[in-house]
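Structure request: Amidohydrolase, Streptomyces endophyticus.
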Amino acid sequence: MPASPTVDVHAHVLLPEIEALVDGLPGHAEAKALDARRNGPEALKVSGRMIGDRFARLTDVSARLAAMDAQGVDVQLVSPSPSHYHYWADEVTAEKAHRLANEATAAHCSAAPDRLRGLGLVPLQHPEQTVRALDHALDQGLLGIEISSHAPGRELSDPAYEPLWSRAEESGALVFLHPFGCTLDERLDRWYLSNSVGQPAENAVALSHLIFSGVLDRHPGLRIIAAHGGGYLPTHIGRADHAWRARTDAHACAREPSAYLRRLYFDSLVHDPYALGELVRVAGAERVLLGSDFPFDMGAEDPVGALRAAGLSDADLRAVRGGTAAALLRLWKD
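Returned structure:
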């Protein structure tokens, strides 16, 4: 391990055994139909080819390591593809699925333990299972969990998730907030707006729920990493601050919303050097982590180059490239 490793906190693994488990179960066809409606037929066709082209990097450790070497990445934090959330599943299926995801992700990472760390899944649609699922992930040697921006009928501000936040805070688990699917539905079903617009919107909504509901006030030790640079929220946080000052109904959290940006972590995947510079300005370099969305087409093929393009200072570049993440991932404590 280099003294100053380059660490990518946003990388995925595809787990075909999860899809084999849920295939044909009640509710699966309806979930696939919803996904198709939200994305549109052209997006599904392009995504199918894209996954096929990247299948080896998503499943084979040797192919992953070769790609990491080409990118100059020393360590990845690997999370299951968000397509494996399956928040439609019933209690029994959900428990089987998250346990299988945790165990399969841990097995993938164990093939290169000096270079891969992992995250598991919890069934947000069944809040009563989430603490047990988190503990199972930690028992597998994973560093935490990946969650979406909401579950059907529940926002992340729902009181039913308080035990999950408490356990994540107590255990020091990482919580990687990565949306999958946008509730704007058919409004985004062309030109891949479901991702280019939908993902940043979902990030902003989910983070706003965590901030305004007081989750971050009640759990100041939570270690949440927001994918996609936190979406639209960090660069438009001034509007939230204004609402907090101007309106009693928005004056719900203890401090201005912008103050909470320095209590969260964000990946660097914003696809714009000026936006990345602004993210570093409002959140602090010590709260921004290199992220590539490896190996999907909406990711960064050269994530380190994207950092350099932002013109960060040497100290800020070192922190974002891996200095902060190395401590979060406990690279020297295993």
